[in-house]
Specification:
Number of helices: 4
Number of strands: 0
Shape: globular
Order of helices and strands: HHHH
Strand content: under 5%
């Protein structure tokens, strides 16, 4: 399904790639779609409680640098994308 990005969306994706977050705009788009899929899935109550506990733990944990945060976030989203690709029918 072809899609048309606005000039602003293209610039935002290019900036993400330029920062080194992803090698290509396609990889960045794939990660974005994977994140949307993950965020749109309803969570069972036990998982919601676990996430709330983790959020509270995070709020109480020592502060990390911005660079450490973005590095860890990229690693997590890369893993999500890898898992998403592995789950796709071949």
């Amino acid at each position: 399904m072809p899609i048309q990005l606005s000039p602003e969306q293209e610039q935002r994706l290019e900036a993400i790639v330029a920062r080194g977050a992803y090698a290509t705009t396609q990889e960045a788009l794939d990660a974005g779609v994977a994140a949307i899929e993950f965020a749109s899935e309803p969570l069972p109550e036990d998982e919601r409680e676990e996430i709330e506990a983790l959020l509270l733990e995070g709020l109480e944990s020592p502060t990390e640098s911005e660079e450490e945060f973005w590095t860890a976030l990229k690693a997590e989203t890369d893993q999500m994308l890898k898992d998403h690709r592995a789950a796709q029918p071949k």
